[in-house]
Amino acid sequence: METSTEGAAEAPSSDTVRAEAPGTGPASADVPVTVEPAAAAPAVDAGGTTERVAIAPATLSPSRASDFMQCPLLYRFRVIDRLPEKPSEAATRGTLVHAVLERLFDAPAAERTAPRAKSLIPGQWDRLRETRPEVVELFEDDPEGERLARWLGEAEQLVERWFTLEDPTRLEPAERELFVQAELDSGLMLRGIIDRVDVAPTGEVRIVDYKTGKAPRPEYAEGALFQMKFYALVVWRLKNVVPRRLQLVYLGSGDVLTYDPVLADLERVERKLLALWEAIRQATESGDWRPRPTKLCGWCDHQEHCPEFGGTPPPYPLPVRAGG
């Protein structure tokens, strides 16, 4: 549910990207765009107007780590400048489907059926519109409701496909939409939201993530697993337990990708994240956020501010280190 992991030649993932902070339910936790919670703080000017004041990033989530690896300037636009992004049908559909799959487990095991899951879609869509009113604009030019009906039908298909991949009547998740946060020895704070955590009677942990897009090609599988290894690292740091299995469930293509990590995997991810955070720290202090053009740029909301498209970034809102 984070950033695209299918390479520069692929369109961005159709999965939702979620806020990396605790919420009160699926609609509050799943939003089309996320920013680091520490990226800005409210301030009140002399006239009493509340503004957002940029501060240096203090935490790292899988989505923001992927942003920086994809394009440092994109990271700046999202975390430092907090530029708005329009909701998309694909990401919002992912949000809706995630909410339905979470809520289904509120029902007794025998009642977790495909018809019941699909019946949850209208109510979760209503809730999403209430908590994220900006998604209403997606269908403002659809007075007859034809596109909306088709879009909701596509969500139903994704939910129904899930039942061919997993059997929820045999699952009792230990956690759903679990907010996790851990501080590394270096002081770096990692945080994120895990779709589902299963714990076997023997104590073995499985981390599960739903994707409403298609599975990546084999050569991009490692990139797809980055998010899951990130979560596994956080769980290991919190519980001193290496998850037994990482599982990506791709509803768009009907594939399940699994990986069984070992401690060395998590140690490598930690070293990678520390190096990444050092690069972010240097860019924050110097103000030097360089674009990294790829074919994914065609889907970026910030072309008007990007030098690669003839745009000019907003004035840098943080102080620049002398000589940076």
UniProtKB/TrEMBL annotation:
<dbReference type="GO" id="GO:0004386">
    <property type="term" value="F:helicase activity"/>
</dbReference>
<keyword id="KW-0067">ATP-binding</keyword>
<feature type="region of interest" description="Disordered">
    <location>
        <begin position="1"/>
        <end position="32"/>
    </location>
</feature>
<keyword id="KW-0234">DNA repair</keyword>
<keyword id="KW-0540">Nuclease</keyword>
<keyword id="KW-0378">Hydrolase</keyword>
<keyword id="KW-0347">Helicase</keyword>
<keyword id="KW-0269">Exonuclease</keyword>
<keyword id="KW-0227">DNA damage</keyword>
<protein>
    <submittedName>
        <fullName>RecB family exonuclease</fullName>
    </submittedName>
</protein>
<dbReference type="InterPro" id="IPR011604">
    <property type="entry name" value="PDDEXK-like_dom_sf"/>
</dbReference>
<keyword id="KW-0547">Nucleotide-binding</keyword>
<dbReference type="InterPro" id="IPR038726">
    <property type="entry name" value="PDDEXK_AddAB-type"/>
</dbReference>
<dbReference type="GO" id="GO:0006281">
    <property type="term" value="P:DNA repair"/>
</dbReference>
<dbReference type="GO" id="GO:0004527">
    <property type="term" value="F:exonuclease activity"/>
</dbReference>
<dbReference type="Pfam" id="PF12705">
    <property type="entry name" value="PDDEXK_1"/>
</dbReference>
<feature type="domain" description="PD-(D/E)XK endonuclease-like">
    <location>
        <begin position="59"/>
        <end position="307"/>
    </location>
</feature>
<dbReference type="InterPro" id="IPR011335">
    <property type="entry name" value="Restrct_endonuc-II-like"/>
</dbReference>
